[in-house]
Design brief:
By secondary structure, this protein is mainly alpha-helical. It is 55% helix and 0% strand.
Length: 105
């Protein structure tokens, strides 16, 4: 378990410091390991971020845009501007909205 902790803290640049190499040879090997491993970890984290962004976009377009099904399949920028889960006539204009039954002062 210490090896996994050491690997993750080294490659993610957290570096708690309580697990570290003791000899000069191991310190040099860790330097080479991090020179190779940090860019690979950065690519991995970028791919995870891209996957999470796609998941959020999919969930948003399927769950929150039910009131405007005609704009599904359009890019995320268009969806975020056009689909805010409001009825087509604006806020408070739908038949299910209680605004029409509340008298305004």
């Amino acid at each position: 378990m210490n090896s996994l902790l050491f690997t993750m803290t080294t490659l993610t640049l957290i570096g708690y410091g309580h697990v570290s190499p003791s000899t000069d040879f191991l310190k040099i090997m860790v330097m080479i390991y991090t020179i190779v491993g940090i860019p690979i970890m950065a690519l991995f984290l970028a791919n995870i971020g891209s996957l999470l962004a796609k998941m959020v976009t999919y969930i948003y377009s399927r769950c929150c845009c039910r009131c405007h099904p005609q704009i599904r399949g359009i890019s995320f920028a268009v969806v975020t501007r056009a689909c805010l889960c409001f009825p087509p006539g604006g806020v408070g204009s739908a038949g299910r909205s209680p605004r029409s039954r509340i008298p305004s002062p």
